[in-house]
Amino acid sequence: MKIFLTSIFILFIIINISxxxxxxxxxxxxxxxxxxxxxxxxxxxxxxxxxxxxxxxxHCYGLxxxxxxxxxxxxxxxRLASLTKEFTATAIMILIKEGKLNFDEKLTDIFHNFPSxxxxxxxxxxxxxxxxxxxxxxxxxxxxxxxVNDKDVLEMMMKQDSTYFEPGTKYQYSNTAYALxxxxxxxxxxxxxxxxxxxNIFVPLQMNSTLAYEKGISEVSxxxxxxxxKDSGFIRTDQSLTSAVxxxxxxxxxxxxxxxxxxxLYTEKILSQKFIQASFTxxxxxxxxxxxxxxxxxxxxYKKHEVVYHTGSTIGxxxxxYRIPNLKFTIILLxxxxxxxxxxxAEEICDVYLNDK
Length: 357
Known about the structure:
The chain has ten helices and 13 strands. It is α+β, with helices and mostly antiparallel strands and 357 residues long. The chain has a single domain (42-353), classed as Beta-lactamase (3-Layer(aba) Sandwich). Strands 2-1-13-12-11-10 form a six-stranded antiparallel β-sheet, with helices on both faces. It has a three-stranded antiparallel β-sheet with strand order 5-9-6. The protein has a two-stranded antiparallel sheet with strand order 3-4. A hairpin with a 2-residue loop joins strand 10 and strand 11 (305-314). The longest helix has 32 residues, at 2-33. It is globular, with a radius of gyration of 22 Å. The two termini are 35 Å apart.
């Protein structure tokens, strides 16, 4: 009996040593993939890998503030850019859940003085980028020096008389649509978009450092500033003329808070699974053709795994959340530099772990 127990103990030690070596190997590979960000004098990145609810890898690289030599930490807050869209879509679905909106409601139903072309654009068209709305970025004068906000985008659309195509007949990614969705949240709820997100998503999930940033109204704690690489090195390029538009890209958060968001998607803390799964379902054009976008999420198949993800790219920031729900596996990568293919990086990291189903 003693020999048997000794053998079991030795086997246990061998298995644990093997596991530790395997994890160490994976750590080295992942760090090599992120080597471009691992410079003590450059803007960098925060990376988290989650499996079965557990954080299996977490590391930060580089600086959040070059001028003050502040390193990136797990609590560092980055501008999400278009990762914001999943929160905007969730805000709309909360209102639908409460019976205050429906997917088939038209722009003209909500904004009664909206031009007649809005009579063909539904909430669903806005959510899955089939609205055909004119890109607001193309309507900003070259001489503009003051930042555009969501209300400005709505006013721009009020002055248009057409769309790029008949709504529902084509997929075309639209920041305009998500700026209008934020205004719909405000109109229907009677609250500011930032406060609605805080009260209905961030506070319930204890995402205590996450916010839709409004200059002069709110402050970002532990803030990462954005940079772009030039011949002389990195220069701060933190804000652009469109950085104040909240609905399409204005949220700041950290990998620690994004962990809470990711895990909530397996629960019904914010929305029922009926709505969550709807957001992960490919939309369809009027002719029935499927598109690779749900409500605030891109959809794809990678090595036979169904992936829901979103990238975020703006001046000074590039980010991704990359989820394989059936494996309960998530990669969250937030960076404060205007370079790097975050989707490619996520899939290289994914390859390291895919064999551990």
